[in-house]
Give the backbone structure.
Amino acid sequence: MTSTTEQLSATTLLRFATAGSVDDGKSTLVGRLLHDSKSVLEDQLEAVERVSADRGQNAPDLALLTDGLRAEREQGITIDVAYRYFATARRRFILADTPGHVQYTRNMVTGASTADLALVLVDARNGVVEQTRRHAAVAALLRVPHVVLAVNKMDLVGYEEAVFAGIAEEFTAYASELGVPEITAIPISALAGDNVVEPSATMDWYGGPTVLEHLETVPVSHDLAACPARFPVQYVIRPQTAEHPDYRGYAGQIASGVLRVGEPVTVLPSGRTSVIEGIDALGRSVDIAWAPQSVTLRLKDDIDISRGDLIAPAAAAPATTQDVVATVCHVADQPLAVGARVLLKHTTRTVKAIVKEIPSRLTLDDLSQHPAPGQLVANDIGRVVVRTAEPLALDAYADSRRTGSFLLVDPADGTTLAAGMAGESFASRAAEAGAPADDEGWDF
């Protein structure tokens, strides 16, 4: 008989992030999803029932399953990103429950940065609002390949199909203009459980999947091995012992692609070339390694290599640059202004940099660009040009979410200022320049 562990090891993993405006019922949806999929421990449910009863509520407040901070419970809002792990017989899930307030948009960037799917909630009574557009824009910027629009509180609009259809049409048009490759709209009532885990008995006009069914069946691709190899060096190993007097290895995690013994490689930013002489993984030598394995590379030639250098195939090495053109989401309370001196952290490399230019800030209402804003404030999304003190080997973010992303950091106190995506911002903008507008080539 197959054990539960063996069953789960054969299932795929889906990382997804939730987002929605304040009081759209996001925490209730997540709680309903966990409760109805039998992913809640008995003592957790008992605690929620006890707190709900103390408040005079007749039924358990499922939002309390995710709002774990005291301030969250007291105010009835989500403040921090909460990660939840659960599984069904068909798939394993890592859920990033992100806040809905405008001032916490930066938290959505954190939760969605590694997501395969974004679940955006809309209150059926309010429709698509500015925060909905902001969440769609962040999902598009972060190249999240699947977006689900959950139109919640359908019970408060009489389960009217026309209400759902209007909201779905407006959101789909907006998200499609941003270049989101796949959008699925589902009418739900998180409070009543309609179309969350079980199909709704009151919306027979809807013939699509429930939220859980879609999460279980949406295609997920983690084929990092199909992309050009990228190996950021994390640590140089020099034992200098009697057993290994001349051993020199470069340890790190393969960000993408496949590396083979005997393959010619280039070390960036120096541009020096060599050949992979050996690959050590889990204490033994192997002939081949692929993303996202952690390995140690040994090269044929003695080259000056240190933490932050990038090893890539000589035939497919990225270009280096000191002028980084990118889209950033500003996440700090302090503004980011032209002339600001920052640190730029890319993979394992951190270099000094200066903000040379802020060409535009995105206006979410109509996707227009506000030219030369001079600075970006918290939760702003804008284009920047950053000059680095040393060359960087960046890929375009559209080609690789791992080696096309970076952070801007305050050198004084280490505060993260902005999350950056190198190259074109939205897929639709890339299409205008002649690049593919679908998800082909996106690295997940």
About this structure: The chain has nine helices and 25 strands.
